[in-house]
């Protein structure tokens, strides 16, 4: 079974194929972005007219229920769920800042970090305690 990324609110599968689909907005600009499902691969597809500038924050929403995916733990990140097919769900947190490569998979008390900027967040607490 492939890894399935889920909206934490409506539980819709965000990667119905090989890409993860998000609704995004920045100011008055709205669109869709498709991301690679492999942690640490920061390639994506977006409308070339969607304005993206290094260091700017992008707002991510579920493309189905439209709820904000900003992490309740730290608003620097978005949060989705990861179902790896073993009946448990992990949290995936990744930076909302364009050009910043930091992804964390939180599974119980274990945290896996990906991306060259992940070490900048060594002191972050994803557990809420």
Looking at the structure, what is the overall shape? globular
Oligomer: single chain
SS class: mainly beta
Number of domains: 1
Please indicate the percent range of residues in DSSP E strands (runs of 2 or more): 35-45%
> Low-confidence runs (pLDDT<50, min 5 residues)?
none
Number of strands: 9
Q: What order do the SSEs take from the amino end to the carboxyl end, as H and E?
A: EEEEEEEEE
Helix proportion range: under 10%
Radius of gyration: 14 Å
Order of strands, main sheet, comes to 1-6-7-8-9
Describe the sheet with the most strands: 5 strands, antiparallel
Mean pLDDT: 91
Distance between the termini: 33 Å
Annotation field: number of helices: 0
Structural account:
- By secondary structure, the chain is mostly beta strands.
- It has one domain (4-121).
- Helix content is 0%, strand content 38%.
- The chain has strands at residues 4-6, 19-26, 29-36, 44-46, 59-61, 77-83, 89-95, 103-107, 110-114.
- The strands form two sheets. It has a five-stranded antiparallel beta sheet, with no helix packed on it. A four-stranded antiparallel beta sheet has the order 4-3-2-5, with no helix packed on it.
- It starts with a strand and ends in a 15-residue tail after the last strand.
Short description:
This protein is mainly β and 129 residues long. The protein contains no helices and nine strands.
Write the layout of secondary structure elements.
Blueprint: E1 4-6, E2 19-26, E3 29-36, E4 44-46, E5 59-61, E6 77-83, E7 89-95, E8 103-107, E9 110-114
Antiparallel strand pairs: 1-6, 2-3, 2-5, 3-4, 6-7, 7-8, 8-9
């Amino acid at each position: 079974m492939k890894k399935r990324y889920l909206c934490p609110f409506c539980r819709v599968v965000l990667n119905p194929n090989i890409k993860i689909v998000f609704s995004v907005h920045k100011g008055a600009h709205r669109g869709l972005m498709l991301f690679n499902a492999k942690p640490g691969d920061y390639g994506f597809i977006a409308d070339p007219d969607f304005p993206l500038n290094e260091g700017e924050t992008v707002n991510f929403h579920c493309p189905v229920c439209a709820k904000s995916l900003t992490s309740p733990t730290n608003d620097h990140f978005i949060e989705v769920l990861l179902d790896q097919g073993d009946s448990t769900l992990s949290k995936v947190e990744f930076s909302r800042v364009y050009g910043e490569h930091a992804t964390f998979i939180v599974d119980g008390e274990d945290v896996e970090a990906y991306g060259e900027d992940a070490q900048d967040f060594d002191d972050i607490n994803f557990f809420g305690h």
